[in-house]
Amino acid sequence: MSTDPHRRVVVSGEARELRRRLGPTGWVVFEELLLASTGPTTACRASASVRSLATSLGLAKDTVARALVRLRAAGLVAVTQSRSTGGVFAASNYELRIPPGIIVDATPTSTPTTAASSGTTSTGRTNANRRRDRTDDGVQLTLLSP
């Protein structure tokens, strides 16, 4: 399963009810399929196996399989399964229906790297040292003393 590094999923409040109905596992599997998809939102397709989805999400394959059943029942995913000449299942092809409240975009962004994402603060310190720096300034001790 390959993903486009520029592909992004934008979710608005309009998708809240769908997220609640799918549950956390169904939602995260749907997000993973959207990120792995190709094509415009009107013909969005992803090719992945249950095992590859499970590996990329850190979930058990049976958990991902149950989530895919929920996605099919919700009408968000249509699956085409094929087998190799030896009878082994190949990666499934998923046709994705993008519901209102979700935008899939593959436009490269040119936003500058923020301090939080680069691992440094505005003073040039690493985020690992940031927590220690906050407690060294005495503010924490002042809040705890009576």
Explain what you see:
- The chain has a domain at about 10-105: Winged helix-like DNA-binding domain superfamily/Winged helix DNA-binding domain (Arc Repressor Mutant, subunit A, Orthogonal Bundle).
- It is built from 6 helices and 5 strands, in the order βαβααβββααα.
- It has helices at about 15-35, 50-55, 60-75, 115-120, 125-135, 140-145; strands spanning about 10, 45-50, 75-80, 90-95, 100-105.
- Helix 1 (about 15-35) crosses helix 3 (about 60-75) and helix 2 (about 50-55) packs across helix 3.
- The longest helix is centred in the first third of the chain and has 21 residues, at about 15-35.
Helix-strand layout with pairing:
Blueprint: E1 8-11, H1 16-36, E2 44-48, H2 50-57, H3 61-73, E3 77-80, E4 92-96, E5 102-105, H4 115-118, H5 127-136, H6 139-144
Antiparallel strand pairs: 1-5, 2-4, 3-4
Uncertain runs: 134-142
Using the coordinates above, name the CATH class of the domain at 8-105: Mainly Alpha
**Spatial order of the strands in the main sheet?**
2-4-3
The CATH homologous superfamily of the domain at 8-105: Winged helix-like DNA-binding domain superfamily/Winged helix DNA-binding domain
Question: How widely separated are the two ends?
Answer: 57 Å
**Secondary structural class:** alpha+beta
Number of helices: 6
CATH architecture of the domain at 8-105: Orthogonal Bundle
CATH third-level topology of the domain at 8-105: Arc Repressor Mutant, subunit A
Please state roughly what percent of the residues sit in beta strands, choosing from under 5%, 5-15%, 15-25%, 25-35%, 35-45% or over 45%.
Answer: 15-25%
